[in-house]
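Quick log. Single chain, no ligands specified.
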Amino acid sequence: MAHLRFDPDPACDVLVAGGGPAGAATAAHLARAGLRVTLLDRQRFPRDKVCGDFVGPAAMVELDALGVTGVPEYRATNVIRHAAVHLNGVELIRQPLPQVEGMPAYGRVIPRMLLDAWLLDAARRAGANLVEGVRVTGFDAGPHGVTVAAERDREPCTFRARLLVGADGSNSVVARTLRGSVPPDEDRIVAVRAYYDGDSGPEDRCDLYFTGESFPGYYWLFPTGGGRANVGVGMVLETLPPTGDHLRGLLLDLVARDPALSARLEGARMEGKVVGWPLTTYDARLPVVGERVMLVGDAAGFINPLNGEGIQYALVSARWAAETVADAVAADDFSVARLKTYAARAERELRYDMALAGLVVHLIRNRHLTPVWLEALKVISSRARVDREYAAVAGGILAGLAPARDALTFRVVGRTLEQAVRSLGMSLAWNALKGPRNLSRLGRGVAGGSAAMVAGVLQDPLALFDWVVGALRQGGELAGQFGAHVLDGGAAPDPPVAFEGEEVRLQIPLDHVHHDLLHQPPVV
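-> predicted structure:
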């Protein structure tokens, strides 16, 4: 068997494993900063990728910094200005996307076949060297560099560089090698999606759907324009009791039976197949840096477990990583201590929000309590319909425009509790007007439902114990982050600004952020 060896010249600074948004953005930033970058990917582009395809305003700011918004085809992609939430086929709320200072008041739906190719083009234009059809199988970091083992056309090959950036997705080989294990099931989300032709709904509105069948999770319709739509469903992998649902069958069933979704897709036909992929969510206990190695995007677990958002975190983590790498190259220091600047930045920006999201997701894993969680969704939607400030916070969190920590403010918690009491009071009053007999039936129904939930919870005491322990652990993580946030004076996440390193000559040129994005109307 022939043994191929790829020996980049010693001036090759960074090897990036993975050409998705995180890897391509990292390569683009570093190449623009003057570093010599080699970008590897196991596939050949353009290629499809399982995703909801929604690109929110925060991600669009990062794309603007990379020059992607200047691509003519980009401005022809579908603009999203509104979102609607449905429960059991009934619309709960419909609102415009929240306006956040410094960001556009709209998002876009961009198929990954296009988005990833544009990001790769940005990396190549910046000077990065792309090598396709290469599957990374492991790495070994030493005092003089990192050696990356790979396969190309089923033949072994080797690459060397001063630093390795793992951007090879949720099943990352780089992350597995660094961490010594695969991600635990509790950190996994599974999702499937298909494209439909014949969407009759508004092209500027994306729809989110909830029902007991898909909980803990949700399903969506994101219009890509021209009557085409991305339709999918996602759910946490580990639930109590375990779910036996096959997501492909569940998606097709929901398309056929959900009144709101089926009405929008009446007469539509599916293009291609239903395809799926697992996602690894954020776990603060796992390292994102090692000696001469860093993880970005999905490989680092930078996926919000509450809404499955990953593109935004892929792009911002690429920028954070590039800033740290530029500093490390200037100092010729790729030690863990030096690279921990990036880990600290990610923790400062993400850990508090992810702690809250992680606690919520862990609580809703208990499917015996699904009626409680869906009732809470009704309460939140009811308040948002009549309270613009509350709606802006709730919508901002869902769209990734506001930190999840905003949900813990007294204003939000207090108004949620107020709405819950008001909704309960109105329900009791309405049933009382129907007569004592109806109120008695309601009481018996609530008591019976509560007893059924308790009985279900107690069916598997060991699983219940594990769930309680997990809730306590997640609650402790949130409490710790809340305390650190208070001690830090309630510091907000850093805004996306240009990198200004005082002692580093290599700089990440981001100073044109927002230039075209905020001052030119989108093409609809």
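DSSP finds 13 helices and 19 strands in the chain.
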